[in-house]
Amino acid sequence: MNIQSIGESAGIVWKVLHGDNRKWEYQELKQVTGLRDRELNSAIGWLAREGKIQFDESLNKDKQSLYIELSLYIG
């Protein structure tokens, strides 16, 4: 894994998030992108560092969920 491959993975995640403006669960995003955990985690970190995604952690029926969504400001 190198900066080039992390950037490519971030691009894959960005396209999925940009195409469907909603909250995504981690496992759901993993399945849709086809990325492995390490690739997806690095892509999420890249996009988070750029301020392009938001996180929402919620607790549902004793199960903690992480939701990821696009940060898009129109102005």
Describe this structure in words.
- With 75 residues, this protein is α+β, with helices and mostly antiparallel strands.
- The protein has a single domain (3-70), classed as Orthogonal Bundle (Arc Repressor Mutant, subunit A), CATH 1.10.10.
- Helices cover 51% and strands 24% of the residues.
- It is built from three helices and three strands; from the N terminus they run H-E-H-H-E-E.
- A three-stranded antiparallel sheet has the order 1-3-2.
- Strand 2 (53-60) and strand 3 form a beta hairpin.
- Helix 1 packs across helix 3.
- It is globular.
- The mean pLDDT is 85.
Summary keywords:
51% helix, single chain, Winged helix-turn-helix domain-containing protein, three-stranded antiparallel beta sheet, Arc Repressor Mutant, subunit A, 75 residues, alpha+beta
DSSP strand tally:
3
Which shape, going by the Cα principal axes? globular
Q: Largest beta sheet: what is the strand line-up? A: 1-3-2
- Low confidence ranges: none
CATH class: Mainly Alpha
Distance N to C terminus: 36 Å
Organism: Phocaeicola coprophilus DSM 18228 = JCM 13818
Pfam families: DUF2582
Protein name: Winged helix-turn-helix domain-containing protein
InterPro entries: DUF2582, WH-like_DNA-bd_sf
